């Protein structure tokens, strides 16, 4: 039964997790500070009380947490693990890349790892270099791992449900600057959506902008400020990535801009550009990418601003693209 | 050499006040919006840094966590340079690149904070490994929390250091909490030193709110390392009397705990001990005021310094 509720982004994730725990008895929810304290960002508040021992706190042991999720999921549980910062997943990357990603394939499909890793990433003012990275490209390089990146509350709800219901490992990358934002109407209780797809945030004719993550709002601001007629495709799912939707749009607009907060080299923007160029679709301007400069991220706000893509950088790229 | 215990205690009190006032100042700057982002204070834990750093030699290397302002100060980094770092000024130890949670000042033997729990331990072991070859006689000291004991890399490092007799001192500041979760809910054996002991490392549990006990333990650890007998593990019981980070409402604390911790915090304790020995209240007061005057002047200078120029943001990525 579908109804609407006014929820923040964090509240929408909480509602989705509650529904998973309610309707899928095989789910487990664990991580550092998630149960009794309700999460350092409050996203899992109340879930321990409501669902008891299936929601629990863990030691600061990312390898053990993720490895335990792999093993439990192989036995039919559906673990949902919170890795507080994407930067911390690096401590346990083996369990994601060598372990979770291999389970189905090398067992010839006899085993699976239906686990969900919730994490959050990106810079916020003053965050240090070890709490600022955008690491989606590392995961997207790994076949066998699904990756979602919700920005709006509705997507946070829908993608979380889809991730947990998915029978393969999924990493849902959230953003801490969004958790406590404004409330929005969220449809809850509807059918559990499948993984995949994109969101069209602006519709236009002259340029296709592909983006994902919290920087989507800067893209929207840049499009609105320049008045350029643009398709803005938010790739809420990066694996599977909706290549067809991007190609269909570029076929119409003849121009492509990809924007991500991650740094440029080896970023997923390069993959998007490559797919478009390889498709042979005719372009009226060379494709462009806007992303962070290839640098570490300084804590100093005034320095970080010069490294991370700003709305003005996106607007300038848009203008130069349509000038062709 | 005759050691005047009272003078040593007064010096410890002064050193602890310097850290306390530095942290109070940072809290105020954060509230005022001059400092932004996540900041971790070590109020209540000052005795560990003070006791350890007054015992270390200039050639030794300290690796701390994000809760490291006081360790840097105790190691000799001027307060002005620490504050300027948090304020993103040119005069900061790293010009604002490191910030509150990730700065370093190797010229003072402070090889840096770390914001990945447990990551400083293997790096310190590496500094100790280098000492086996470079003739410096360096001892590496790494400090981390109770929660960090559950990080795999810490266990790996304890064994590596033991197997290779590395001159490294592991200090575990057991403040009872890892962020918002009590350590005793996350371990079966609350004696964290037992893990080091099981790996063959001399391990002691001490009162981390007593700088003299910390100093003695670190002194023994240095001697052990100097004699080629490798690592020592020190579990220092202490309490933080502020939140995990600025803004932590500490709702996870049982009623009355904070009040009890405040009665037992190291500055209160040492002040009471000195008063009981007959040290005049005016003397104790002047120790505090000296620290306040120093930090106030440092704050003024740090605030007056120019912000780091954004055009330098891309420097120092490679040689
Ligand atoms: C690998 C990793 N996991 C999680 C975190 C998030 N985190 C930061 S501090 C902290 C608690 C650490 O507790 P403890 O080791 O006891 O040190 P304390 O903060 O009490 O000094 C956690 C979980 C992190 N920074 N790095
Ligand atoms: Mg602790």
TrEMBL record, chain A:
Coiled coil: none
Membrane-spanning residues: none
SMART domains listed in its UniProt record: Transket_pyr (SM00861)
Gene3D superfamilies: 3.40.50.920, 3.40.50.970
Pfam family, one: Transketolase_C
Classification via InterPro entries: THDP-binding, Transketo_C/PFOR_II, Transketolase-like_Pyr-bd, Transketolase_C
Entries under CDD domains matching the protein: TPP_PYR_E1-PDHc-beta_like
Transketolase-like pyrimidine-binding domain: residues covered: 7-181
Species assigned in the record: Paractinoplanes pyxinae
Keyword vocabulary terms for this entry: Oxidoreductase, Thiamine pyrophosphate
Cofactor(s) needed by this chain: thiamine diphosphate
UniProt name for this protein: Acetoin dehydrogenase
Cross-referenced SUPFAM superfamilies: Thiamin diphosphate-binding fold (THDP-binding), TK C-terminal domain-like
UniProtKB/TrEMBL annotation, chain B:
Keywords (A to Z) from UniProt: Oxidoreductase, Thiamine pyrophosphate
Pfam families: E1_dh
Cofactor: thiamine diphosphate
Keyword rRNA-binding among UniProt keywords: no
Signal peptide extent: none
Span of domain Dehydrogenase E1 component: 19-310
The organism's place on the tree of life at top rank: Bacteria
InterPro entries: DH_E1, PDH_E1_Alpha_Subunit, THDP-binding
The protein's name in its UniProt record: Thiamine pyrophosphate-dependent dehydrogenase E1 component subunit alpha
Naturally occurring in which organism (per UniProt): Paractinoplanes pyxinae
